[in-house]
Each structure stands twice: as C-alpha cells, then as structure tokens.
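not sure who needs this but someone in the group chat was asking about C4-dicarboxylate-binding periplasmic protein DctP from Georgfuchsia toluolica so here u go. i didnt clean anything up, its just raw.
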Amino acid sequence: MGTLKRNAMKLYAFVATFITACLSFAAYADQPIIIKFSHVVAVDTPKGKAAVYFKRLAEEKTKGRVRVEVYPNSQLYKDKEELEALQLGSVQMLAPSLAKFGPLGAKEFEVFDLPYLFDDYAALHRVTEGAIGQGLLKKLDSKGIVGLAFWDNGFKQMSANKPLHMPADFRGLKLRIQSSKVLDAQMRALGATPQVMAFSEVYQALQTGVVDGTENPASNFYTQKMHEVQKYLILSDHGYLGYAVIVNKQFWEELPPDIRAQLQDAMKDATRYANAIAAVENSTALEAVRKSGKTQVIVLMPEEKKAWKKALIKVHQDSGSRVGKDLLQSIYKETGFNPAKL
C-alpha cells in the first residue's frame, strides 16, 4: 500500500503540474500582442492622427488580440535613435521620414528629398502607391525591416527670421535639415549652410539662434510652435515630406498569419486616412499660423519661384549617382517631370 500511495501521490503531482502549466499557457495565450508604435511628431499632425487611427483599426480587426501603444513626440526615442531601436526590437513599429533611410544604407529613399520633383499629390501617389514605391519598400528587407506603407505629411515651406524671396536671400543663413545628402545639396544650392539636427531639438535651436530657419509642412511648423520663434514662413512648396510605416522584420514574420493579414488590412485603411487628411491638416495649420499674427506668411511671385527652381536644377543633376539614375528616370517617366523645366 505504501508503494501504491507514493505512486498515486506522484501521479497527482504530475497531473497538478500539467494542469497548472496548461492554465498558465492559456493565460499567456490570452495576453494581447503588444505593438509599440513610436514617432517624433505631435498627436495632432497627419502622422500623429493616422497612428491613433491605425491603433483603433488594428485592435478592432484583431478583436483585441493586438494592442497598439502609440508614443508620439519623441517620448521614447529621438529621430536619430528610433531606427536602431526598431532593429533591436525595442519598438515594433515606426513611421520615420523618408530621409532617414539614407544613413541606414537605403540611399534610394533620398529621391523623395529632391526639390520640386512632384507637382501635386496625384503625381506623388503614382510613385508611392505603384511599383516604384513597392520596390523601394522591398529594399528594407535586408535591414531587418518590413516596409508596410507610405504616409503623406505634405509639401514643405521654408521659414526664417528674414523674408526669403530670392536665392540671394539665403546667403549666410544656417538652416536645419534632416540627415540627407540631397537636402544638404539643396540648401547649399540656395546659398545657405545646412545643419543636421534632431526634430525634437529644432524649436529650441530656432529660439536660441543656433539655426536661422528650417523647412517643414505647415502642420509640423504649427504643432511644434515654430511660428512663435520664426518671423517668416515662405510658401515655396519646394519639397515633399512623407513617411514609410515600417515594422521589425523578425517580429512581423513571427506573428500568426491571420493576425498579420488583419494588421495589413488595418494599415491599408489607415494609409487611405493618412493621405486623405494630409492636405486638409496643412491647410488648417497654415490658417492657424496666419491667425496667430506671430509669423508673416509670404507667397512667392511666379518669377521668384522660377528663380528658386533655376537655382535647384543642380541638385537633380548631381543626385543621380546617389539615389540611382534608373530610379530617377523611372520617376520622371511616371510623373511626367522634366528637370529642364526647373
């Protein structure tokens, strides 16, 4: 009886351990998958609103199996740090500006920094939503990154503490840029000195005179309160600022296939939303800048914009070897752009 009792006790202990393990596994399985989505702009910008919209859609479509935690305004990482954080798995999702991929080794993305490359959103979307855009996103695979979508912010305006009507007005100015060889060449072609700086540091740099001005869509300019420390905003529409929504490749590939499909569906809807509100948000922000009375808004005359374009022809001519001549020509063909008209 003693032996039987000991065996019964062992069996009981084994069953109890097995049940506990099963319950623990079930409890673990019920835990939602967390996606940390970090970005560097304010909540009330096109990207900020689109990130929140994606969060809602992702959680609805997966019925709570995924929880998206959105961290705006560089709460987790500055824009110089966030790509490394993604590759290390510290965050799962980002939407960095397209200029950020050049320093990562994907120089082709700097093609979007070329001045006056796109006349309007229609021309832009023929590139980002077509084969060219998908080919660019695919180039991120080798970096441990999956590219999911392109999101618009909008067309950029110049700002400074002096009016900038002609290229000669740029001489001697220090202007903040993102880390991009194309943007560096753009500012030098206009006669300014480019200063690479994290987005989160720009307001203070403008306030203290470390830099004299910068370039931004109106939504970023207003939500970061740059209108409080810049006297002039010049409506140049000289360049495009957009984002690539990206995810850590290992994390993405380890997701259950049904969850991955639901997230892709949510991203498609969020992308339509992001791109639909971009122009509206920038228009609203520009009106708010005007109403503030703190920044004078300058509309370039046709002959002034022509002078800007003429000064910037060289940037296109010199950037082919960096971004890829074939890529550049394919974008020209898709959009009907003719650099000779700059």
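also Confidence is low (pLDDT under 50) at residues 4-28. if thats useful
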